[in-house]
Automatic annotation (TrEMBL), chains A, B:
This is Ornithine cyclodeaminase. InterPro entries: NAD(P)-bd_dom_sf (IPR036291), ODC_Mu_crystall (IPR003462), ODC_N (IPR023401). Its EC number is 4.3.1.12. It is an enzyme of class 4 (lyase). The lineage of its organism: Bacteria, Bacillati, Actinomycetota, Actinomycetes, Micrococcales. GO terms for molecular function: ornithine cyclodeaminase activity.
Amino acid sequence: MTRFVDVSNMVRWTAGRGPETIISEMMQYLEDDFRRWESFDKTPRVASHTPFGVIELMPTSDQETYGFKYVNGHPSNPARGFQTVTAFGVLSDVHNGYPTFLAEMTVLTALRTAATSGMVAKKLARPDARIMAMIGTGTQSEFQALAFRAALGINSVRIWDTDPAAMEKFVRNMAPLGFEITIAGSAAHAVEGADVVTTCTADKANATILTADQVSPGVHINAIGGDCPGKTELDAAILGLGDVFVEYDPQTRIEGEIQQMSADFPVTEFWQVLAGHAPGRTSRDQITIFDSVGFAIEDFSALRYLRDAVEGSEFFEEIDLVANPDDPKDLFGLVRELSPIGS
Amino acid sequence: MTRFVDVSNMVRWTAGRGPETIISEMMQYLEDDFRRWESFDKTPRVASHTPFGVIELMPTSDQETYGFKYVNGHPSNPARGFQTVTAFGVLSDVHNGYPTFLAEMTVLTALRTAATSGMVAKKLARPDARIMAMIGTGTQSEFQALAFRAALGINSVRIWDTDPAAMEKFVRNMAPLGFEITIAGSAAHAVEGADVVTTCTADKANATILTADQVSPGVHINAIGGDCPGKTELDAAILGLGDVFVEYDPQTRIEGEIQQMSADFPVTEFWQVLAGHAPGRTSRDQITIFDSVGFAIEDFSALRYLRDAVEGSEFFEEIDLVANPDDPKDLFGLVRELSPIGS
């Protein structure tokens, strides 16, 4: 049987354990997997693009466990009452190929994207960072705020979104959790004096959410929203102001902010920093940029964490996904047409 | 909610409707989709190879519906009590990216592989073919026999397998269904006088199940087992004796029998025959070879057929795979930590 965490169980488990605790614990799984980055199979995700959006499959394997995520990205979904991003994922045993774990990943992806940003910021942002600007207060924004508090203790957030209702929603969700929130009058106002700038908008276009003159020395930019060809958020000039860190170079060159730059634009894969092979932040004034697009290993870590966390709990059920005939060569014996008795 | 056909429902539905009827009906869906081949997104499958076997994702889309299959292939599984091949698949709506249908595909893949062979043989085998040789009587063999009866009325099967128990199993399953079965003493004996030769063995090696001198004029060879790099069944010389038909050229060059041939070895994509763009069988003595590796569009057709066939029936349940907050931008509202009353 395959263990299955559906939406209802995921929601109950997340609300019960607490999203901030989950993000903290998940960061540890992410760090463990990023440190052994070289042991994973890595391929750019397989994307099916249409005018409506994109559907992607993101597989990876550490030779013991295989995992993949199905995820869509449809920027016009919210206007029609649907989620921009929904997802589910699977883990399986490499030794026999059987799927062992299936989970909704709409909520889990929100948690893992935030946990990844937090893990990276712990290494790249100034340790004394106290103020985050959040440009875009959609689905991902609350999770990001919790991740930066978990990673760096940041409690003060300056927000901006073109949709006032989305900002109100952020305040409604986060003020009760002890965040000090400033609603800015523009993106420029939001980033003024911020130590960390998170851009997390969903337009499927080469937008300029942030321009070079708005970026102060010492800032860490956490660029989340630009994640497919033709979809970027940062003024290209910003990328030349600091050092750019990515998840997986071949994928980010296609999907990230650096799609705006030449093919030899220098970047550092973040796992190198974690493993001690490359420097992270080297001075107080250095501008660091995490050009995040999301990579399969992060989903693998998130699924592995969830699988372990719900073990022995009430938060999963078992489903019958793999046919299991007594004689493995006799699949047909399972489905032989039933003869009426006496015929 | 997402409709889900688990193993138990699949088995009950298949046994109730009858595998031969299902293969017949599925052939129609396959033909419909092969005729509109050009309207599909096509990519070679994404394979993760290990010493144990392979795990693959096979996506495709017709711009309205997206589908993919997860499938493994582990030749040493049966010796350890597991299936060589297990699978499951998903259909989703392209317009919003939501998964709408999930099904076990271990049984469904067996049916679709057979239905594909049947569809192809209807065009390529001699219409008066009466005897099939079946080399390899593993999991796929009974389904193949039913497909050739459904497609061509073939009722007489000559079988050979290195494992006597697998041949006994074939006889036990198929004799009651009215097949006339001859157990041959060797592969050479089995193919003697056969109009159609199906090779369906599971060794992960460049094997020679069939040699050129065993191939008579007019035969249709249905080569199913050679389906990944380094895994072939036919003597390369056979491929020069006749005309080779494939599913999707770029994938078959990597995975099929023709991996043994030069990159410019001429082949015909089968959809071209169905669409009237290329000839199929042109003479009684022509040797036709279907170098089958399995392609994503076949799984798409199979899932589409199953989805339609179980509609309104008792053979599916609904699962909660997609989070659905009232405000699509307020995913966090679903999982906000619950505060104890009075706190």
